[in-house]
Amino acid sequence: MLNEMKRPFQYKKNRTLNEKVKVKTQTKQKAKTRNYKQTLKRIWQFLSYNKGLLYLVLLMVLISSFLGLLGPFLVGMAIDKYIVTKSSDGFITLLFVLAGIYAAYSLSLWFQNYWMIGIAQNTVFEMRTKLFKHLHKLPIPFFDKRQHGELMSRITNDIENVSSTLNSSVIQIFSSILTLIGTVSVMLWLSPLLTLLTLTIVPLMYLGMKWITKRTGVLFKEQQRNLGELNGFIEETISGQRIIKTFSQERMVSDEFIEKAERLRGAGYWAQTYSGFIPKLMNFLNNLSFAIIAGIGGILALKGLISIGAIVIFTEYARQFTRPLNDLANQFNTLLSAIAGAERVFEILDEEDELENESGLRDISNVRGEVEFRDVSFSYEEEGNTVRNINLHVFPGETAAFVGPTGAGKTTMINLLSRFYEVDSGSILIDGHPISEIKKENLRKHMGYVLQDSFLFQGTVMENIRYGRLEATDEEVVKAAKMANAHSFIMKLPNQYNTLLNQDGNGISQGQKQLLSIARAFLANPLILILDEATSSIDTITELKIQDALLELMKGRTSFVIAHRLNTIQNADRIFVLHEGELIEEGTHESLLKQKGFYYHLHGQTGEKANV
User: What pTM was computed for the model?
Assistant: First the structure.
């Protein structure tokens, strides 16, 4: 138990020198680039969607602040007018007035909290919706460089952090500022001397807050980052459970989880520890202020320079003076945490979407399907090309196949044609139009995909097939399933086309998942068809069953096929052989065999079912 208690302290103590230097460097960089005002301004832009309600909230805050100041003032007057003078004339009336004031005060608090909850929920709804929509506009390379779980954390945890802060902090901050202004004004009117003495705690408060927030700001940012990394790791391990169990790596995964969770716990521990100093500091300053006012005020009262009622009013106002400062100090740490989450959200929103600069691009129609690569080179990294100087020409209605060893650049060619990635040099043309001049959404509408990794969404079988063309009727969906040879197994499912599936395709095999993907492509009825290992997850018998359907689908369409098994592309009009990113051979199956080159050796080494 003692060791468990020591762990948070060991987190800080056991950092290596390099980690400390790294954190210090990152802290300096963040201090230069972070702009709290800009982040708050952007949060305000989302808040402004509910201006009407927000103005009502501010009105209620103004009323509650006024009533909160009026109550103690009337209590002080009652002491001087009725208690000190021992007069009861009008005392009962004053009590009813006070009761009415505090009832109205409570009611105004209820309204401002009720309305603020609606504002907060509407704000985070707009923020979350905008972020989610923006994610779908970002290019594929963006997702290649980030963990999916970490992105999920920004949509959920970071925005929820903003939500909780809006619910609790916005009203508190406005109320504290108004109360502070009103309190100081009345205190100055009652006794400038006591007000000056009360304000002596402000420099102490400023120095203490500066020391604390200098540390908590960085720690809250680190906490959010560690939380995102942990979520990414959890999402990754849950998705890869089969591989983890296959290789018996449960202990390694658990150890890595503990390491990441320990970093999160450490950052969270120190963030909360430092921020926990704030209420302790404020309580000390509250007591110090009360002691100063009580002592000096008592002396002034004995000398007849101030009334007892004024001292009561002043002590209550002094408490109200320190309370807003205390609330502001507490909310400041909450605000820092929310800003850290908001910055992570705005960081994604600031990413340039792939459709942003397409105003000058064109739509194409009546596509024939002629595709040409001219001196195309591309690399995923800055150094070393993945494909180099590719030149090829595919005519409308032809079936072109890409073969070659793993890593030769086959899938890269498809990614470039679809503009998932942009070429480094050269150009790709469709019907003589450079695809860089065509809007991506319009370009992809003319393409249908059956990819190596079949993907199903949460929904019914019918809905997953209809994803290829949302306006398709049920009859068209069934027809597409029959063409893909998927109808027979679908009819054996518990609820047939209404069977609910998840991403893992519960209850169906990998081959059946691929058949649904092929049915989706049938339904889309594209002009350009892309089959990237479309039959890789299907057994030989099933593959033979759908060959006729695939041939029927490819009729009259320009088709690009990537396959490891050579028997699936022997009927292609032209076969392009790639090796180490270069196009080294081109021709039909028979002509390539006659050349006795690279393709011939691939075919000869492993026969018809060569795995290349």
Answer: 0.66
